[in-house]
Design brief:
The protein has 13 helices and 2 strands. By secondary structure, the chain is an all-alpha fold. The two termini are 29 Å apart.
């Protein structure tokens, strides 16, 4: 479900005109989507399972990379830095909120207090990319208020629409686009879109059918149950394995 949550966050991020412009004007993700995915996954895995030193080193690399990047707001012609706090905060909040939403809709049971604690913990990851943790929403209620405040800033631009289409039907390597893998990939995209807030789906011009959330919840619950049935040894990353070993040694 983490993959679905990550994809959901990208759909949300693309609705911020400056955030999506920064990506479109600085990234080669269209030419190398799977390389970009691998690099992003490595960063996320390092932050989740790496040591403090490894996470801080990864954060320094990201900050140095972003510090060199600028983009032009296509609506105003203004040039801006991609590491503006507003943009970093939008990317951070949509990412961590999407991860939580995906696993909760997938069947993970967390109390409201545990969900709030998750957001509090994630303010430390916000610091890694250069944000002041005090400026980052740190509870379910704070995230909801943040989204409400940001909604007037969001819109479907040409960049947003192009990114949304690309995320839904990305090119698949090794001819897999002509195999059943294409259908499986589309199912993941469809689930990510279904998990979007209703207001985000409306911005994308998608029909707000009354049953959308119910059907999506059922599909997410089924996907979550199937994933939990897979033995952890089959899918455990080396980084997670090392983290679990460190935890056992500490206890």
């Amino acid at each position: 479900m983490v993959t679905v949550g990550g994809l959901r966050s990208l759909y949300l991020q693309a609705l911020h005109p400056r955030a999506v412009a920064g990506v479109e004007q600085n990234s080669r993700y269209r030419q190398d989507p799977w390389g970009r995915l691998a690099r992003t996954s490595t960063y996320v895995t390092t932050v989740i399972y790496g040591t403090t030193e490894e996470a801080e080193r990864a954060g320094r690399r990201v900050r140095a990379l972003h510090a060199r990047m600028t983009a032009v707001d296509r609506r105003t012609g203004e040039r801006f830095r991609v590491d503006e706090p507003e943009l970093l905060r939008w990317v951070h909040v949509t990412e961590v909120e999407s991860f939580l939403t995906a696993v909760l809709r997938g069947g993970l049971r967390l109390s409201p207090e545990e969900s709030d604690e998750y957001f509090r913990e994630q303010t430390r990851t916000a610091a890694l990319v250069g944000l002041d943790p005090a400026t980052v929403p740190d509870s379910v209620a704070a995230v909801e208020a943040y989204y409400a405040a940001m909604r007037p800033e969001l819109e479907l631009t040409a960049d947003s629409a192009a990114t949304g289409i690309f995320l839904t039907m990305p090119p698949l390597p090794w001819g897999l686009g002509l195999t059943p893998v294409r259908g499986a990939a589309f199912s993941v995209s469809a689930l990510a879109i279904g998990l979007l807030p209703a207001w985000a789906r409306r911005l994308y011009g998608l029909p707000g059918l009354p049953a959308t959330d119910l059907v999506t919840s059922v599909n997410a619950r089924i996907a979550g149950r199937l994933l939990r049935a897979v033995p952890i040894e089959w899918i455990e990353s080396p980084a997670r394995k090392r983290a679990m070993e460190r935890l056992k040694a500490r206890n």
